[in-house]
Specification:
- The protein is mainly beta.
- The chain has one domain: Jelly Rolls (Sandwich), CATH 2.60.120.
- The protein is built from 2 helices and 10 strands.
- The protein has helices spanning 23-28, 99-103; strands spanning 2-6, 11-14, 16-20, 40-44, 49-50, 59-64, 70-77, 84-85, 91-96, 111-115.
- It has a 5-stranded mixed beta sheet with strand order 3-4-9-6-7.
- It is globular and about 35 Å long.
């Protein structure tokens, strides 16, 4: 399980993330889950936009480009929202609400995915 680190700020965004790389895993995302554990996250790769249909809880969303630079941020995206995305995004990271603020993540920051 990778750890997601904001190397610009020196903060941990997620300590136990999962990859969603297959077509089905990317399609399913967090739909139908009851929650996302604190410190958890889902890295959808490749992906540049998300929706929250069929989700039961709000999420923080970070969009990163090919260099893992933050190109979009959507805090507390509510369930059943049709779309959020960012131009130039290659990966989308779905996180528990409050993760963006807790890690002080901002546009332009660089992230690192560290395998544990």
């Amino acid at each position: 399980m990778p750890q997601i680190v904001n190397t610009t700020r020196g903060t941990v965004i997620a300590s136990r993330a999962e990859w969603a790389r297959s077509f089905l895993a990317r399609l399913r995302g967090l739909m139908f889950r009851a929650s996302l554990p604190e410190g958890g996250g889902l890295i959808i790769d490749p992906n540049s936009s998300v929706h929250t249909f069929w989700m039961r809880f709000p999420i923080d969303v970070i969009f990163v480009d090919r260099q893992n630079r933050v190109v979009g941020i959507t805090p507390a995206m509510p369930p059943n929202r049709p779309y959020a995305g960012a131009r130039g995004a290659k990966r989308t990271i779905e996180l528990p609400t409050g993760s963006i603020a807790a890690s002080s993540t901002q546009l332009g920051d660089t992230l690192e995915f560290r395998e544990n």
